[in-house]
Amino acid sequence: MKTEIKQRLAALRAEMKKLDIDAWYISGTDPHSSEYLPKRWETREYIAGFTGSYGLVAVTLDKAALWTDSRYFLQAAEELEGTGIEMQKLRVTDAVSPDTWLSQNLPAGSKVGLDAQSLTVDAFRGLQKGFLKKDIELVETPDLLEAIWEDRPAVPDDKVFELDVKYAGVGRPEKQQKIAGELASAGADIHVVSMLDELAWLYNLRGSDVPYNPVFTGFAVIGEKESVLFVDSGKIDSDLKSKIEADGVKVKNYTTFYNYLAEIEGKTVFVDPSTLNFAAYSALAASNEIVEGTSLVAIQKALKNETELEGFKSAMKKDGVALVESIFWLKAIIGKQTVTDYEFGQKLAEFRAKQDGFKGESFTPIVGYKSRGALVHLHIGADDALPLDADGVVLFDSGGQYIDGTTDVTRTIALGAVSDQFKTDFTLTLKGMIGLTQAKFPYGVKGCHLDILARQALWDNGMNYGHGTGHGVGHFLNVHEGPMAIRLEYNENLMQPGQVLSNEPAFYREGQYGLRTENMMVCVERETTEFGRFLGFDTLTLCPIDTTLIKVELLSEKERKWLNDYHRWVNEELKPLLEEKYHNFLDEITQEI
């Protein structure tokens, strides 16, 4: 593979020379700013061999670099070794940004090319701003990989299917009316929708173009009196097309999107520069007034309606049953039969698949045993699997897609003896998860204001973790969704009732172990006083936490009560749904401490 990567880099450089450009920038995403990508747009993996879900690449005529964040530092260093591509860190204090690196490695007057269809407006502006001081020109080019990528996959042609309103809660016409009202408030006529999960939510449609995310490839333009869906005609059968058109939606071919934008004139167009690609923006900017902000569809999608929230609760019960069965299976087999970390990941999917309405996993399961637990987004296959022994702990982060909801849960489970230090680390991290769960805060608070609650006990002990604490979760949609988040970095989007988020503080000792406890929760109204509205979180996830790993003396009475109450609730909800052979086991792992 390393030799192949070198050959691809050489072929790319030959294409760069034809266009007289000195570097080419790869955003690592597709025209829809997707995290998980259709095979056609796995450009980062194709050119660098890096398999993580986040990263940027820059290639000059004699050097190449890949940037990623702390989730993938160890993985990227390993995968890039011997390719001639250096790893650069992002989202850390001493990070060297791509524009800085390129400026350092290119002389004044150089040209940096990029595919504007796969780069957001914000990313384009960021590069341009960085280059202005250095007299480096940013040049739009065709997708150069098209010339060198033999047998490059086509845009997926998988069929689109409808999500019944009994699961979605609100029909297409009502969603359009809501967005039209938001557009009017923003003083805009139309909104360009480019994110695939926003498209799926807006039209109550789902697909299978992207691994783990039930979405389909397309764009939309929506306004008070228009709703145009751009999708390959073969993806929607005639009956579904008739239903969509009956709701006032015009269906046009995916390939006509940019030409359609170029013909719009004299409108006020609302765009989200953090997700819309620069080619789409360019097609609109010359003849229209542009209003920028967080996608109106993303904001509404994040505010789950009552039907969606009930769906999440249903999915959590099914997921909880599958997880208890999985843990029971693992505890019964460990030390008696050989089972690998990879096989356990497969077993999690197998138990979930028995549940009604299961539609697949929501991401590749992460199973980290012993020192592998410190690899935050570890991906293992059958070839590099490790046997699990009756010793230490295994961390597993996994999730399911159900017709009525999406799940994401992490547990760290003892397989044998652990050190006193591990128990301390585990308990301090658990205190952070409980602290965020119990937060009560005034309306207007943002995720960055809450993040400290998850880190306080760790910080008090000179400890930390490098990733965010909480991300939004879609309803039978992407397991990672915005626009809000709980992390140290500033995000202008408020916490609002109806948002479903993860809560996943963690701790990693490189070369020793990693641990994480993750629940999903929903933001809810708590009370209104003379000082304003106060919000909080209700837990959704139903899965026992391994109390054998806890130093009880490090928990406050309030934290201990929360844990006991949580386990009582888990027991009450799951026991009626589990076969009797699991009842004693459930009682044992949810007993009071």
Q: Mean pLDDT, as a whole number?
A: 96
Sum up the overall morphology in one term.
globular
- Coarse structural class: alpha+beta
Number of strands: 28
Q: Please report which band the strand proportion falls in: under 5%, 5-15%, 15-25%, 25-35%, 35-45% or over 45%.
A: 15-25%
The major beta sheet can be summarized as: 6 strands, mixed
Please report the number of helical segments: 19
The percent range for helix content is 25-40%
Q: Which blocks of ≥5 consecutive residues have pLDDT under 50? A: none
Measured distance between first and last alpha carbons: 51 Å
Radius of gyration: 24 Å
The strand line-up of the biggest sheet is: 4-3-2-1-5-6
Describe the structure.
The longest helix has 28 residues, at 306-333. Helix 4 runs parallel beside helix 5 (121-132), helix 14 (306-333) crosses helix 15 (341-353) and helix 16 (420-437) runs antiparallel to helix 17. 49% of the residues are buried. Helices cover 35% and strands 21% of the residues. Strand 27 and strand 28 form a beta hairpin. The chain has 19 helices and 28 strands. It has 593 residues and is an alpha+beta fold. It is globular and about 65 Å long. The strands form eight sheets. Strands 4-3-2-1-5-6 form a six-stranded mixed β-sheet, sandwiched between helices. A six-stranded mixed β-sheet has the order 12-11-10-8-13-14, with helices on both faces.
